[in-house]
Fold this sequence. Notes:
By secondary structure, this protein is of the alpha/beta class. Helix content is 25%, strand content 18%.
Amino acid sequence: MPLPEPYDSWFPDAPIDGTYGYDRAALRAVEPVAPPAGFGDLWHGWFAASRGVHPEPRLTSLGRQGAHDVYELEHTGAGGLRLRGWLALPSDGAARVGVVRSHGYGGREAPTFDRVPDDAAVVFPVARGLGALNTGVGAPDTAAEHVLHGIGSVETYSLGRCAVDLWHAADALAEIAGDLPLYYVGESFGGIGALAVPWDRRFVGATFVVPSFGQYDVRLGLECTGSGEAVRRYVAEHPEARDVLRYFDTSTAAGYLRIPVRCECALWDAAVPPPGQFAVANAVPAAALELRSSRPGTRSTRARRRTPPGPPPRPGRTSGGAWQAYPPKLRADGKRSGHRQSEQPMT
């Protein structure tokens, strides 16, 4: 089947049509999945239980990087697991805001300061089992195995445990940097932030870039090149797993968000099918949503109801491209992978 324009020239060897037959209007019409019985109570309960766990952070200094002093961090995660990541504090003066900066399914090999203001304290959590620091800790290290780990039960599924780990990473940041308003930034796998953030009132805003794990009713019917393919095949053989996934659908959780949210969704993405991404954006209450979206080859436009009051860098204080876009694959602003595009700070 021929690919639609302009993707046929941009991705001539693509094994899958990354639009899946959806144009922007169809993507904006994708409905989020309604919550199953007990959804909110389950997540509220997990958050309440996490308040009884002390993060016990341990820091190892790694020196200065740009405007920040960087440390390797070890902290307690869900189930008492000791996880490692990175933490950075402003080199000059006290932190104004805290940022929880998550990663994609490739894990994280080192801290990077895109989207991090100079005067922010930031934690770079690394998911259990993944990345340079947590390989072999608590979960498998390959995406296809990680995304299925513990799927036999709501209580053990890896995505839920990783979401709970984000609360503990935020606890470690607060233990060291103090009680700060928090902002979440995550891409792809980092979409699990949509599972974690709604229940934690410390967060004042969030950015989700090509968020994964949304709208399983649609997602499970779409072949893809990402971790979702392992889930699709598994559920085809084990249909009972669908009931577990209902409690980890990011489009469901996003409906509980009551803070300003920015979603950057792809119009073409063979790894994370766009209908699932847009289902997350479509679930966010309209008054709180900023959606980056444009037709390929045209100027970027915004479906904008309210500008999120995230932690923009102060004038004259930007290092590492603070709040600069990170465009994986083809984002909804029409740019291809590898093309770096500046975006305006959220003010």
